[in-house]
Every structure is written in C-alpha cells, then in structure tokens.
Inverse folding.
C-alpha cells in the first residue's frame, strides 16, 4: 500500500513537485471552472487557450526561447482577447461566445502568421507549455501565485459573480459591479490557463478546469459546495493521475485528466444531484 | 543595341564563372563529414558537393532534383556505406550518373549494433543490424581518407602527387587528433567514463576509446514522458553512478534539468554525430567535431 500510494512521492523530488503543482492548480482552476460552467461558458477556456499564441510568438521574437518573455506575451494576448470580447459583448448586440470566437480566431491567425514569417520550425507551444513532471522552482512559484491571486480575486468579486450567474438582469438593475466583476473573472481565467499550460500542456489545461466543475455539478446544489467538490475532485485527479502515470507509463498530463474523466463518469451515474441512477430511481418523496 | 550588348556581356560573365569551376574534378559526397574528407584530400583540384549538407540529417534526407543533377555531373561519388545511405542506390540510378562510386568505409571492421543501445527513437535507419557511424573512431576516419585518396587517384591520375601529399598531411592531423582523444580520455578517472545518452551513434567511439554510452531504459523520446520513464532514468543514474546526461529530444529541456538537479548528474551539452555544423557552429570540420565532442565529454565527466 505504502509502495503504491506514497513511495513514489517520498522517493522522487519531481513527483512531489508535480503533486504540489497540480494541487495548486486544482485550487485555482476548480472555482473558475464552476463559474464558467454556471455561465454556460464551458468552451471558452478552449478558445482562450488558442488566443495566447500570438503573445507567446511575440515574446519569442523579442527575446528568443525565454520562458518568461513568452509567458508574459501569452498573458497579454489572452487578456487582450478576453477584455475585447467582454467589452464587445457588453456594449453591442453580439453575444459573448460569438465575439470571443472572432477574437480568438484572429488572435490564433496572427500567432501562426508571426511564427511562419519568422520561419522557425521550433514548436513554440511545445516549448512554452511544459510537463507536470518538469516543474522547476520558478514555474511552481508562478502556479502558486496564480492560485493565490485567483482565490483572492474570486473572494472579492464573489457576490456579483454569483448574482450574474443566477440573474444577470437583476444584478444590472441594482448594481454596476457586473461589468468589472466579469472582466476580472476573465482575467483570472487567463492566468489560470497559463498555469495550466505549464503543468498540463495546451490541450489539457482546460481539462483540470472544466471536468472537476462538471463533477461538482452532480454532487451539490449551491455554488459554494459545488466549488468545494470541484477543488477536491481536481486534487484527487491530480494525485491519482500522477500515480497512474508512475505505475503504468501513461503520460502524466493525460493521466490526470483521464482520472478526472473516470470520476466524472462515476458522478454521472451515482451523483446525488441529477445523477442518472438517481433519476431512474428517485428517492421517495416525503409523504404526508 | 548597346544595351543588349551589355546584357549579353553580363550574361556571359554569369555563365563564365561556373565554367571555370568546371575545370576542377566534380565530386559528390553523400554527407558533410565525407565532404570534409574529400576537400581535405582533393584540395584545389576538386570541387566537392554534399547531398546532405551541414546540420542535415542523413536519416531523413529526401533527394531534390538539384541533387540528381549534381550526381549526373559528378565524376566521383563518395559514400559511407554500411547501410547509411539507403536512398542512394535509387538516386544514382534515376539520375543517370556515370560516375565511379567509392564506399569510404571499405576495410572498416563493421560493428554490430548491440542490444545495449536500444533504439529509443524510431528514426528509420535503413540498416537493421549494422552500425554505420564508423567515423566516430578516428582510426576509421583514416581508413576513409585512404580510400578517398585512392579513389581520387583512380579518376584523376594526373593529380596523384597532390592527392597523396594532401592525404599524408591530413592523416598526420588525424593522428594528432587521435592522440588528443586518447590523452583526454585517459585523464578521466576510469569509474567516471560513462554517460547516459539516447544517441545511438557512438558505438565506434565507445569501442575505440573506452567511454561507456549507456542508453536510458524504457524511454521513448518521441512521445510525452510518463512519470515512470522519468523515475527509471533517475534510478538508473543513481544506481549506476552515471556522472553526466546527454539526452536530447526528450519532450522538453526543462525535464532534463529536473533529472539533472535530482540526480546530481551534469547536463552534458550537445554531441555531434552525423553531420557537421555550418561555419558558425562548433563543428564545421571533422577534426572540430571530434575535438568538440571529446572536450564536451571531458568537461562533463571530469570530477
């Protein structure tokens, strides 16, 4: 038991770092995912993941293969796309998903163009976005800072954010906090994506955000409980995924998301809130 | 009218320049290291073209029409043999080349690729069991040079004296190079003469000079690493007390840094195996290449 579950972390430094990394990631990404889900923006994460490309490319052009320049560039590009899409959605008829799709595609095109013009065949995204097994001190610090900022930021904008999920028109009628809260939320989304890129790579960064959130939906009715379940599910997936990768040679990033996927399937079947079995065999109502 | 004459003159000039180069013996070498040998032996009498240029990978080379033309124009084609240029036979045939072909590795004792050097990466060597990288031993390089010299004399007997003088001078340099390699290796404590690497090109070097090149276990370098792969490499480095790591192509460099800082092994740097670098690189000639490799190894392995 000890050999299977704990020894890998006791013996290898890189496993401990990976564990800390995914834990911090789950802490920040869980709540973000829950809010994305509640606002029906589940696929926005994927779109944003592509939007950072030109920033990374510009960072590369300016300072070569420098991880910090490219990360900063990615952040700027992500912010720009998120903010522009948010502003357009709020000031015109175009819905948020459509304006975001437009801006992220333009951003992606700009990124691919910049890279091609430079004529490099280095896979920039591959370089920029690492593996959970290779977290160095700087990357770990970055992930930890991002998680902290995310939690603090969410604490500040929690009320308007929840209200906007539930009843945006009411929020608009009583307060002007909706706009700033929304933009802050998008910014937090971007920094969590960048964290996720470092740990899990471009494709899977969104996974640790959305899958635990969907799991949370099956176990809780109120937002706070949903967030708690999502964070716990994310952490459990991270721990079990790393063990899976350690014992079966599955690549680490996909292993984490696969475990989350299994948890999702279990929740889908047995979840107490809208799980399939619960729907087929509803608990008996209290009868007078 | 005048304009046209100037144009014509300019055109003539343009075509005259290569025409002068035609006086030299056109030789095609299959890759950059052979090209370096040929130009050292041939000196001013030959003009060397290489099919796979500096920094090119002969394993994944795909011929262009220009290459076929070069072959068709050549008087001598120098190849490595030992199955290194699997693509060459068809290319020679299709280009209609009438040149003589010399296999530079003739006389080298071929080395079987042993199991220890597991093929971590699946690049398609066309040679299942032989190891073609014979030039990694300087002694073999001397055989190459002798073969090239004899072949040049064969197609251009008038230059015999030149070729022999050039080859003798170059062989002296290679002798000095080999002494340098042996001295450098002997300065490394015997227990530390091993590195972990996924290069499979250093078998001849290992046999000739006694530095162990150990393959990492269970690592496929093409795909994303799993925690188990990384743990195995780390365990292997710890238990075999390997002082330096020369692993390239792992999905990303930060992983290597992680491995190094967790085991205390040094990150070796770059070893050049199949191709020279361009002029600005650290290995523009064969002698530079061997010297760079041995210095890199020595720097990583010295305590």
């Amino acid at each position: 038991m000890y050999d299977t579950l704990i020894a890998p972390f006791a013996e290898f430094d890189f496993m401990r770092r990976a564990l800390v990394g995914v834990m911090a990631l789950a802490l920040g990404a869980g709540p973000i995912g829950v809010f994305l889900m509640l606002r029906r923006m589940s696929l926005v994460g994927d779109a944003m993941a592509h939007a950072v490309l030109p920033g990374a490319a510009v960072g590369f052009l300016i300072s070569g293969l420098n991880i910090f320049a490219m990360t900063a560039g990615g952040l700027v590009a992500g912010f720009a796309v998120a903010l522009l899409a948010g502003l357009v959605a709020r000031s015109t008829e175009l819905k948020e998903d459509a304006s975001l799709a437009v801006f992220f595609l333009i951003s992606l095109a700009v990124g691919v163009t910049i890279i091609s013009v430079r004529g490099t065949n280095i896979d920039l995204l591959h370089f920029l976005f690492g593996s959970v097994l290779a977290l160095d001190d700087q990357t770990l610090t970055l992930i930890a800072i991002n998680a902290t900022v995310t939690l603090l930021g969410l604490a500040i904008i929690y009320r308007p954010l929840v209200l906007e999920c539930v009843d945006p028109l009411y929020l608009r009628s009583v307060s002007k906090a909706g706009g700033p809260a929304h933009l802050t939320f998008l910014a937090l989304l971007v920094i969590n994506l960048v964290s996720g890129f470092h740990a899990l790579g471009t494709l899977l960064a969104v996974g640790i955000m959305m899958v635990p959130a969907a799991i949370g939906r099956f176990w809780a009715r109120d937002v706070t409980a949903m967030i708690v379940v999502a964070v716990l599910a994310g952490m459990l997936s991270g721990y079990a995924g790393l063990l899976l990768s350690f014992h079966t040679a599955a690549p680490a990033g996909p292993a984490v998301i696969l475990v989350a996927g299994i948890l999702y399937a279990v929740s889908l079947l047995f979840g107490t809130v809208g799980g399939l079995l619960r729907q087929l065999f509803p608990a008996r109502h209290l009868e007078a | 009218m005048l304009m046209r004459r100037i144009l014509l003159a300019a055109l003539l000039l343009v075509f005259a320049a290569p025409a002068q180069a035609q006086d030299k013996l056109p030789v095609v070498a299959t890759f950059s290291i052979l090209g370096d040998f040929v130009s050292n032996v041939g000196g001013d009498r030959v003009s060397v073209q290489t099919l796979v240029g500096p920094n090119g990978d002969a394993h994944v080379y795909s011929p262009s029409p220009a290459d076929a033309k070069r072959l068709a124009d050549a008087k001598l084609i120098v190849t490595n043999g030992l199955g290194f240029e699997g693509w060459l036979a068809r290319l020679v045939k299709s280009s209609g080349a009438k040149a003589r072909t010399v296999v530079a590795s003739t006389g080298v004792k071929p080395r079987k690729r042993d199991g220890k050097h597991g093929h971590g990466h699946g690049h398609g060597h066309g040679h299942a069991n032989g190891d073609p990288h014979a030039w990694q031993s300087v002694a073999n390089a001397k055989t190459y040079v002798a073969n090239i010299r004899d072949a040049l004399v064969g197609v251009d007997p008038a230059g015999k004296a030149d070729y022999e003088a050039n080859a003798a001078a170059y062989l002296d340099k290679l002798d000095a190079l080999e002494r340098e390699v042996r001295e450098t290796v002997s300065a490394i404590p015997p227990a530390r003469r091993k590195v972990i690497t996924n290069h499979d090109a250093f078998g001849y070097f290992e046999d000739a000079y006694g530095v162990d090149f150990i393959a990492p276990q269970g690592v496929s370098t093409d795909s994303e690493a799993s925690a188990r792969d990384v743990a195995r490499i780390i365990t292997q480095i710890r238990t075999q007390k390997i002082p330096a790591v020369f692993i390239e192509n792992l999905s990303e460099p930060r992983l290597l840094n992680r491995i190094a800082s967790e085991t205390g092994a040094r990150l070796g740097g770059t070893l050049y195996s199949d191709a020279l670098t361009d002029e600005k690189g650290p290995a523009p000639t064969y002698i530079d290449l061997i010297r760079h490799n041995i210095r890199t190894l020595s720097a990583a392995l010295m305590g």
